[in-house]
Write a structure and sequence with these properties.
The complex is a heterodimer.
Chain A lengths: L1 H34 L11 E3 L2 E3 L2 E5 L9 H10 L8 H9 L1 H11 L3 E5 L1 E3 L4 E3 L1 H10 L4 E5 L6 H16 L4 E6 L1 H4 L9 H10 L3 E4 L12 H4 L5 H6 L5 E4 L3 E2 L4 E2 L2 H10 L3 E4 L13 H12 L18 H15 L4 H16 L10
Parallel strand pairs in A: 3-4, 4-7, 7-8, 8-9, 9-10, 10-13
Antiparallel strand pairs in A: 1-2, 5-6, 11-12
Helix pairs in contact in A: 4-13, 6-8, 12-13
Chain B lengths: L8 H10 L17 H8 L6 E10 L1 E9 L4 E10 L3 E15 L2 E14 L5 E13 L5 E21 L4 E22 L4 E10 L11 E11 L1
Antiparallel strand pairs in B: 1-2, 1-10, 2-3, 3-4, 4-5, 5-6, 6-7, 7-8, 8-9, 9-10
The chains are: A alpha/beta, B mainly beta.
Amino acid sequence: MRCMFLESFLSKHRARTRTATLAIVASAALVVLAMMPIACAPPARGVEWDGKRLPVVDIHLHPGDWDHVPQKTRKFLASRFPFPLGVDAESSADDTLSPESILSELDNAGIWGGGLFAVYAPRTVGVASNDIIVKDLAYAPDRYFGFASLRVDRWNIDRDAQLSQLKAVLSKPGFIGIKIAHAHQHFRMDDPAYYGIYEISASMGKPIYLHTGTSPFPGTSQEPAYTDPAYLEAAIQMFPKAGFILGHLGYDFINRRHTGLETCIRLAKTYHNVYLEPSAFGSAASDPENETLSLAMRRMREEGVVDRIIYGSDGPQSPGFVKTYLERTVTAMRETGYTQAEAADALAGNFARVFGVTIPKDAAE
Amino acid sequence: MKTNHCICTGLTACAVLLLPSAPTFAADADKPTLDRAVMDALGGAPAKRDYVFSLQGGWAFSALRVQAGLTNRLALVTELESVLLLRNRPMIGVGMRWVDRPRLRITGEALGGWLFQNSEEIRRGPNAELRVRVAVPLRRFVPYAILSTRHALLPDLTTIERASETETSWSFRHEWTPWATIGLGFAITSSIGVDLAINYGWVDAPNTIALPGFHVGLHFGGGR
């Protein structure tokens, strides 16, 4: 009887001991897990294409500062943010436009490098000064590339000062090009008074990114002389050493159709210094079926100007936009028969060639 | 009624302030059944002489809500909803039990009020909502769902000042918000409950994109 009691006691005791041991081990494991840094690793860099990873550079990104956006445009932008981000647009924008946030968007998309645009359009999209770009470039000097800009709204008074300042900024480390937008800055594409900008581009070897096509921003000059890339032809001819990157392919953002695509392709076929950038119009909001973007990618391939395509998104816009735009572009290229080499050119190769940038091996791994 | 006076004294104080005539959670003949407070909060339309007070906080929508039974099927509903304290919506209306079975409650609610949004884009105007709540009590748990359609009328006054005269005109814009919530409530006691839910309110559909959100809620109820 005593023996049975003892066995029963020991059995219970062993069971308790096992339970206690298990509890201690489980608790310790939980503590160890809790102490480990928990973070989601960013996705692998680059785009998978036929068994190879292709590096990506997004030439078209807008850092900035909400305070320098005109009130009408703030309202417009707030209405474009996903709800509820637009309700507190200022904090959403400040979070989105910081260099940390943009780099995080690039990492999330697997994109290696990004072009940061300065903008001087105080009456339309606002101002992101060259100083902001200088500061932001320092955040990731190996992965960010600066595009300087200049004011043109007091051109009769300060033309020379603005051009000198542009030259000075372009001489700073990290600046590889110039950004202008005739429609947002209200000067004609064919006005020789502004050709000094192209002269600087040619003499310093810094290509110019130009917004082409209409724009949904309040206060934009929508007339053809400000938006139709055909009006750039005289300047393109006159400055063969200046690179002209035709942003948005002359897309009509008001009527949501390709009005300038064929002109852009013709210019690229005719002139060696013309490049094509298919940003913004292929967003999920503007092009739900991805048809507009596919059409542009198909036409550029059919016309043999893939070696002129420079990828850009027009981000960051909202969280995830940079990644989504890349995915949509890759889908469009796959659907329209791009080869691995063509995709590699469009996503980063042409950018590297035009701007003389060396893309490291770890840009796609 | 078993009560718990210790939980969240501040919120209880708020409830008492908002409902000064309500007694504390003392036992009485009309005490709620075990799951009644959370059931009334989530399933809607408390019975006559019952009330429930709800506080739901989350991203991006938070709400303060009081329901008081007028008859056994009809209840008064008042609520104040806020998005990041920038878009506020005080509402008042009624809720009616359509189906009231031990394992299912379906309630319809109709509310009216005013929308105040003070952001880059100021939106103000009358606002109405039709809402259906479905709750399925399972012991202490209350899985529930809400579907609703919200409509706001946003007036704009345009003034054109000419040399000869000043011309003013009104125009109106409609903001539609289809809404869905799916969540789970839990009755801590007969008079106190909590819930956790995900919400999707497509504000200004179909012109916009909206992000889903969530809330956690605390509910107090009692009989009058």
